[in-house]
Amino acid sequence: MRPVSSQFLLLKATALFVLWIMLSGSFNWIHLLLGATASLLIAWINSGHSPFVPNFRIWGKTILFLPWLFSRIVHSTLHVTKLILNPKLPISPKLLHVKTNLRNRAAVVLLGNSITLTPGTITAEVDDSTLIVHTLDDVSSEDVRSGRLEGKIASVFGNGDTSP
Amino acid sequence: MNTFFLFVLLTLAVLIGAYLYRVLQGPTIFDRVLGLNGISTKAIILLILIGSVHERVDMFIDISTGYALLNLVGALAVAKYLEQKGLP
Amino acid sequence: MDVLAVIFILAGLFFLVVAAIGVIRLPDVFTRSHAVSITDSLGAFLMLIGIAIHEGFSLNVLKILAVLALLYLQNPVIAHATVRAALRAGLKPWQREST
Prior knowledge:
heterotrimer, A: mainly alpha, 2 domains, three-stranded antiparallel beta sheet, 6 helices, about 55% helix, disordered C terminus
């Protein structure tokens, strides 16, 4: 028998149940009962599957980080739009090797996802401490090269000294 | 409003044609995979727009969610396979 | 309210058209994936927000936002998988000749 953390199981079941209500959109009691049974069953089958422990202190900071990321996305989207609509196509693609000091795996995932979500930069390879980033030109890769994005993510995760 | 949505739907169909050109023409296999991924994003938007035209958004959103999840699994499987196989 | 929805949808359509032009014009896989990521990031966002404004406040808006969150989570993963496969298969990134 696998070790099952009951608190985590209830949390997962609640999240699945909220998803069920959102997708079905009906508050009939038989639908609610069916949803509760199904979400508890799925949470029990999947429990003990990952060592993931939710850390709500980070979630709040991550939600505060998202508007800043969105403003950067708008900025670089306008830049890439100008590049594409230019008749001379003034692009100079490059592969950059970016070293990160982030030790937390979730932080590295957030960094890679943010880099890929921003138009003009895309993560091509992720190692433990090095990311290979393909960039469209020098202006769009400014955030990655100057380390601003990494600094923001490090401040979200609190210097990244929580366990990986 | 309905005429406007019809115009948007037609424009999206033309854009899908542009991606289809890349799928059929692409020099490497990765261009084709990329084009298919772009087509599926357009198809999700198209489905939600059709739902808005027919006033049944709740039904069409479920279909588009399923489409997005299938696209995720399929694209990851194709990428994994091509990564192991190498350039043909 | 409808005017706002029309403005959002037209702005989203503009970015989708730009992305399609980029997919046709740009020279190789790595640069084309940048063009596709415009679609995913801003084009789909503006378009779906426009449709949500047109729908008005109901449960449907929440579902549209859920689809949007799904797109924002899955599209970077797909783009990264494709580009990594291309890089590992030995494809050389396109360079301008006059280096």
